[in-house]
Specification:
Helix content: 25-40%
Distance between the termini: 45 Å
Strand content: 5-15%
Structural class: alpha/beta
Largest sheet: 8 strands, parallel, barrel
Number of helices: 21
Bound molecules: beta-D-glucopyranuronic acid
EC number: 3.2.1.131
Shape: globular
InterPro entries: A-glucoronidase_C_sf, GH, Glyco_hydro_67_aGlcAse, Glyco_hydro_67_aGlcAse_N, Glyco_hydro_67_C, Glyco_hydro_67_cat, Hex-like_dom2
Organism: Paenibacillus mellifer
GO molecular function: alpha-glucuronidase activity; xylan alpha-1,2-glucuronosidase activity
Number of strands: 18
Oligomer: single chain
Radius of gyration: 26 Å
Subunit structure: Homodimer.
């Protein structure tokens, strides 16, 4: 169905140009490359299927360049093609790059797709198919590209019982009733979607590893995991597992999981050997340790470097990686003194360990210091650890951003994070250059994100949430792409090239993050959601609990004082001038004011409004704009061009969003009206 195909719609194209040009050009495909590389076979198969479906042609596959006539040449780096002048592109990083060229001379037309690897060819094939799908002329497809980031990763938070932690699109496509599913067709279709936007790594189980998934590294389950690895291998995607740090203990093999214990080290060395016997190209481990009740090295008086390095030694002989998450804070604390500010925790834990990690360890750092809120500052760990491999972690699944019931296109948020200048160096110190490895010359680096898919027909529950998965891949490939451009590509590929449809969709996507922010928690303060579920308004839901998440609203004012002089001192974790900017009430950007400062309701923002009036205005505006989204979608020019099922699926979500946005508006406005006693300047109804 169109819902299922997402951005890989392969609708038959009409007669006429540019499609006839492609029919002429692509009737013959010359393939040169590692003949047995499965990824290359995948590329050829994808190409042939795509061309058959969209152009109705049956391309012939050749080994050599034909004497005359048009063709497409696919090749990987090492393969010379006689009679072909063009040089294969050479990039210095050895990443999976590709070049697409269109050659028209002496009456022959030819397209050439060169990859530095089979994966490069696969990415080029998808780009070619995207171009055809969008009806672009061949000359517009000419490009040379290499991914900016080395690891472009997806984290599944799927559990063996088939549920997905923070999943909003149905059940797991990987597991059912404690087992890996027999039929991996859906997993294969997922691999295809991911590869089409350049993803090259995936961890297939939740970072919270329970009893069952602890067994994925045992002889009993590895053949099963290997089946999944095989599917992803075909698409150039390396498989990783989240592991339980206490596995030797939990599985009953040892009576400790102390990382400095010889037996424990031996246990993991054997586990690694076993894993690589089943999966020779296994990517490595993802580890959540000493975080939210997960076991870790702390139990034995060891630190994160001891824990990570022990695993790294086990993986090193096989070239495996250890991705150690920095989402570490004390979730059993109340705010007793300034040192217990949760925002400080990751930096306080990890910064002192800089330089102690082995070179096959990467730290995976959430984009912000708290937890995927609609608005947070950038984590101060980026730039702070100059001798440690790092990657950033985003959340595609909309845990705090409307749970795929609300529209929230997250690419603009991610872009802001990647473009943030850490000032860790005089130049090139943006987060994107920390995570692409260029700033500090890291051996391994990249981007990871928590997936938003499940077994829903549309993959993502909300059909428009597919844009976040697509956008994540594209942005990770090239952080210089604009959020608008990504929205445009996605809308064209997903809905066909009808401006009456794609233009309003682009606008809806681009407006959606700010709409959601407007009717939810104001000015960077975060939370205010129903505890545990994280959906729907509950202003005090997390206010009197032990999770370190507060707004400190009283009758006079609100916000969290994180300044150096009077507050928690969190601002000191940034480099100058970010430190001074956030520390100063005057210089702090409005959108993060309450993250950094506690102010009276009458405090005037740079916008000229008081904090309390800002809260009222944004909540009325947000709810109104949410209703507007619904009307935009219902407009006949759009409605008549989208197939009814997809149209209805989106319309239902938007109706629900409009209703819930009003609820948010009323709960938040009422709360602050009652706390502050300050009426709305514009006299609107607040209950
Ligand atoms: C929080 C989620 C929780 C995750 C945790 C994590 O609420 O389900 O386990 O992050 O990232 O956002 O480890």
């Amino acid at each position: 169905s169109t819902l299922y195909k997402a951005w890989l719609q392969d609708e038959r194209k009409p007669e006429g140009d540019p499609f006839d040009t492609y029919r002429r050009l692509l009737g013959r495909i010359v393939v040169k490359g590692e003949q047995h590389a499965r990824v290359l076979s995948t590329a050829v198969a994808e190409l042939i299927n795509g061309l058959q479906a969209m152009l109705g042609i049956q391309p012939e596959v050749l080994n050599e360049l034909p004497q005359e006539g048009s063709c497409l040449v696919l090749r990987t780096a090492a393969e010379p093609v006689s009679g072909l002048a063009h040089e294969v592109p050479r990039w210095d990083t050895g990443r999976d790059a590709f070049a697409l060229r269109w050659v028209s001379a002496d009456g022959t037309e030819r397209m050439e797709l060169d990859g530095t690897s089979a994966s490069g060819v696969l990415y080029g094939v998808f780009r070619l198919l995207f171009g055809i799908s969008r009806g672009w002329e061949p000359v517009r497809l000419v490009t040379e590209e290499q991914p900016a980031n080395q690891l472009r990763m997806i984290n599944q938070w799927d559990d063996a019982d088939g549920s997905i932690e923070r999943g909003y699109a149905g059940a797991s496509i990987f597991y059912r009733e404690g087992e890996i599913v027999r039929d991996l067709q859906r997993v294969r279709d997922y691999a295809r979607l991911l590869a089409s936007v350049g993803i090259n790594a995936i961890s297939i189980n939740n970072v919270n590893v329970h009893e069952r998934e602890t067994r994925w590294v045992t002889e009993e389950y590895l053949p099963e995991v290997a089946r999944v690895a095989e599917v992803f291998r075909d698409y150039g995607i390396a498989l990783f597992l989240s592991i339980n740090f206490a596995a030797p203990l939990s599985l009953g093999d040892l009576d400790t999981s102390d990382p400095l214990d010889e037996g424990v080290r031996q246990w993991w060395a054997e586990a690694a050997t076993r894993i690589y016997r089943h999966i020779p190209d296994f990517g490595g481990f993802v580890v959540k340790a000493d975080s939210e009740h997960r076991p870790g090295p702390f139990a034995y008086g060891r630190d994160h470097a001891d824990g990570a390095n022990m695993l790294a030694e086990a993986m090193a002989p096989f070239g495996g990686l250890v991705i150690w998450r920095c989402f570490v804070y004390n979730c059993m604390q109340d705010w007793r003194d300034r040192s217990t500010d949760r925002a400080r925790a990751a930096y306080d834990h990890f910064k002192p360990l800089d330089g102690r990690f082995h070179d096959n360890v990467l730290l995976q750092i959430k984009n912000g210091p708290m937890d995927f809120q609609v608005r947070e500052p950038v984590s101060p760990l980026f730039g702070a650890m100059q001798q440690t491999n790092q990657m950033i972690e985003f959340q595609i699944t909309q845990e705090y951003t409307g749970q795929q019931r609300h529209l929230c296109y997250l690419v603009p948020q991610w872009k802001q994070v990647l473009d943030f200048n850490t000032h860790a160096a005089d130049a090139g110190a943006e987060v994107k250059h920390v995570v692409d490895g260029s700033l500090f010359g890291m051996k391994y680096s990249g981007v990871a994100a928590v997936s938003n898919i499940g077994d829903d027909e549309s993959w993502t529950g909300h059909p428009l949430a597919q844009a976040n998965l697509y956008g994540y891949g594209r942005l990770t490939w090239d952080p210089e792409l604009s959020a608008e451009r990504i929205a445009e590509e996605w809308a064209d590929l997903t809905f066909g090239d009808h401006p009456e449809v794609t233009h309003p969709i682009r606008e809806m996507l681009m407006a959606s993050w700010s709409i959601y922010e407007n009717y939810t928690a104001p000015l960077g303060v975060g939370w205010m959601v129903v505890p545990h579920y994280h959906y729907g308004p509950d202003v005090d839901g997390y206010e009197y609990s032990r999770w370190g998440t507060y707004h400190f609203a009283d009758r006079d004012g609100m916000g969290v004082d994180r300044t150096i002089a009077k507050g928690t001192g969190y601002t000191s974790q940034y480099f100058s001038p970010n430190k001074e900017m956030y520390d100063s009430l005057e210089k702090c950007p409005d959108e993060l004011l309450l993250f950094f400062h506690h102010v009276p309701y009458s405090y005037r923002l740079h916008s000229g409004k008081t904090v309390i009036q800002h809260i009222y205005d944004t909540h009325f505006a947000g709810a109104e704009a949410a209703e507007e989204l619904m009307h935009t979608w219902a407009a006949p020019a759009l409605r008549d061009r989208v197939d009814p099922r997809r149209h209805a699926a989106v319309a239902n979500r938007l109706a629900e969003q409009a209703e819930h946005a009003k609820h948010w508006r009323d709960v938040v406005n009422t709360y602050f009206y009652r706390k502050s006693g300050v009426p709305d300047e514009r006299g609107r109804t607040i209950y």
